[in-house]
Design a protein that fits this description.
The protein has helices at 6-10, 17-56, 69-78, 84-104, 108-126, 131-148, 155-167. Helix content is 75%, strand content 0%. The chain has one domain (40-167). Helix 2 runs antiparallel to helix 4 and helix 4 (84-104) runs antiparallel to helix 5. It is mostly helical.
């Protein structure tokens, strides 16, 4: 019987660096698989909350089609936007509808693209000094949602699965 050296005795217990790297890669992939849906959902929440809260300041009560009196004034004299009454109405509706779509994960990419467009308009024409304080973060989050989609915690995902099963895609 041949005698084993201490290194040979340890060989079955330890793995090669490549084996450890492969195992670490599998663990990381499993963690990503489990947490990605939650991360994509969590990514949608803060921007939806900001836009929703802004929308609530534009109306009195729950009628999103009736802006408060101050909004037309604000859009005309402070923001200096063309068609101030129309813009105030469209903004109030968008700031109520798009965050709900984003939160539910319904038409998510379209809703995020709408909010990204609003962020660009706000940055360029309304508050050009707010890039580092707010708009940069909104734009980064919304761009990620447009590119990555809503993930599994969304109505888009459920509807996609239903269509795939109905049409055998």
């Amino acid at each position: 019987m041949t005698q084993m050296s201490p290194t040979q005795e340890m060989a079955p217990i330890t793995q090669s660096p490549l084996g450890l790297a492969a195992r670490a890669g599998r663990v990381q992939a499993k963690i990503s698989e489990l947490l990605s849906p939650l991360a994509l959902f969590a990514l949608r929440l803060p921007v939806a909350a900001v836009f929703w809260r802004s929308g609530r300041t534009r109306v009195e009560g729950w009628n999103i089609f009736e802006i408060s009196e101050s909004q037309a004034f604000l859009f005309e004299y402070e923001f200096g936007l063309p068609f101030p009454v129309l813009m105030a109405h469209l903004t109030a509706m968008a700031e109520h509808i798009l965050p709900v779509l984003l939160l539910l994960g319904l038409f998510t990419r379209l809703g995020a693209l709408g909010m990204l467009t609003m962020t660009a308009v706000i940055q360029l024409f309304v508050y050009p000094d707010a890039w580092l304080n707010a708009h940069m973060f909104w734009a980064a989050i919304l761009f990620a949602v447009v590119v990555l989609g809503p993930g599994k915690i969304s109505l888009d995902h459920l509807i996609g699965r239903w269509f795939a099963s109905e049409w055998r895609l």
